[in-house]
Amino acid sequence: MRIDKYLANLGIVPRRQIKKLLKTWGVLLNNELVNSAQTKIKEWDMILLHGDEIPVKFTVHILLHKPTWYISSNLDEGEYTSYKDLLDNCPYGELLEIAGRLDVDTEWLLFCSSDGKVIHDIIHPHKKVEKEYYVETTGAITETMIKKLEEWVDLNGKTTLPAKAKKLTEHSLQLTIVEGKYHQVKRMLAAVNNKVAYLRRDRIDEWTLEGIEKGEWKYIEL
Length: 222
Ligand code: URA
Hints:
The chain has 3 domains: 3-55, Roll (Structural Genomics Hypothetical 15.5 Kd Protein In mrcA-pckA Intergenic Region, Chain A), CATH 3.10.290.10; 61-124 and 208-219, Alpha-Beta Plaits; 130-204, Alpha-L RNA-binding motif (Alpha-Beta Plaits, 2-Layer Sandwich). The protein is an alpha+beta fold. 18% of the residues lie in helices and 31% in strands. A hairpin with a 2-residue loop joins strand 3 and strand 4 (52-55). Bound molecules: uracil (URA). The site of uracil has 8 residues, from helix 5.
């Protein structure tokens, strides 16, 4: 891909200023100054722009450790700040979308990708990608509830797919589902006459937040 097109796609520099930027100042590509808009770049080349190192990546996937009260939408809404704020230090922030939103009061694992097919495969129930949640409840958890959650519950006339439910303590469980219906975990607990007091997503497929501090993110390779 040409460097001008790549920089334009990133959205860091306005499209119409890129040629001028390259001509006037140039950009460091693998520590060499380039001025030609037609310069070809390849995956893992290193661009230095405005003092920031940008590893060239044609598709980007990241794991983000979302704190509560950040909203899983691309713009701030009311008092809630968009998760995109946490990606300010990511050169690809503009290109990323979420595979499976979290409510504002739910925290931990957000998977973001620039690749629509990857996102589709993670969220589509037929692909059976596991999403594992740690849930605390206001009411005591009974064996009957665990059984029901594992079989199916009715959510507004639609039944849930089989899930894995494991009681951890009187008021906490691990719930693993392959779907991502609106407020699914909270509604599943409500359907068995309980209520979520605290919710976090610990895992999507093989990915966890190991080594990622709250509010931080890291690149992953698929
Ligand atoms: N289920 C919910 O109810 N909320 C979330 O944020 C995620 C799953």
